[in-house]
Every structure is written in C-alpha cells, then in structure tokens.
Amino acid sequence: MLSLARWQPKQSKSFPSEIMFWIRIIGVPLEFRTVHTFESIGDALERLLAVDLDHNRIQVVIDAFKELCFETTVDFKGGEFYDGEEVAVSLRYEKLFGYCNVCASLCHKEELCPLDILCFWHIIYMSY
Boundaries of each Zinc knuckle CX2CX4HX4C domain copy (predicted)? Predict the structure, then answer.
C-alpha cells in the first residue's frame, strides 16, 4: 500500500496511517438507498467524506493499522418489507491492493501474517 500526501513542513500525527477509500455498498434494499443510510454506514467505519448514490458507494478515511471490515449488518426500520430487521451488507473496497486475507490487515502481506502459523513456520524453515 502506498500513501501519498502533499508536502507540508510538519505532517499530521496520523500520517501515513490514514488512507482514503471508495467503498461500494452491496445489499442495501432499494427503498433504503438514501444519503442517510450510506452516511450511517460510513460513520460506523471511520471518517466519512462523501456519498455517491449513483454508484452505491461512500468515500471514507480509514486507519490503516486497524483491520478492514468487509461485511456488516444494518438495521432497517420503517420500510414496507423490512420492519426492524437486520440485513447483511457487503463492503467492496475500490483499488485495494496488498492486504492480508488472513487477518484483514494492511500492515503486512498474507505470506507474512503472524496468525498464519503454517506459513510462518515455512518461512522460518526456508530461511535456514
């Protein structure tokens, strides 16, 4: 992952851990595809920057040191078919490269994941 920022004499304390993503939201019922619904999903993830209803996506700034969320549940109330029901929605990060599938981290490759014991021992064995 590569994070670029305009040069400043003093960078913020959060650089380079903050990364901006467009996230496509999949699974929101048609009657709930509103700015309010997408804002509530974005606010639950991290800092929301924009909502694009035409493409069912949100733009957020995410802390790269936290694990990514690829699915969440949303409570839909007041609709014709969804009265207080939880519905699972999928989150698809656009232009997401180099993350770990094992623990959903942006800090290391899948081959170097400390949670993947078999892969870890294989790397140690091969280095000797």
Answer: 66-114
Strand partners, 66: none
State pTM to two decimals. Answer: 0.70
CA distance 73 to 90: 9
- What are the tokens at 4? 């670029």
Taking the alpha carbons at both ends of the chain, their separation in whole angstroms is 29
Domain-wise residue ranges, the chain: 18-96
Q: Residue 38: how many CB atoms within 10 A of its CB?
A: 22
pLDDT in tens, 100-126: 777 777 777 777 777 766 555 555 555
For residue 51 the two structure tokens come to 């909502």
Q: How far apart are CA 123 and CA 128, in angstroms?
A: 9
DSSP state letter for 94: T
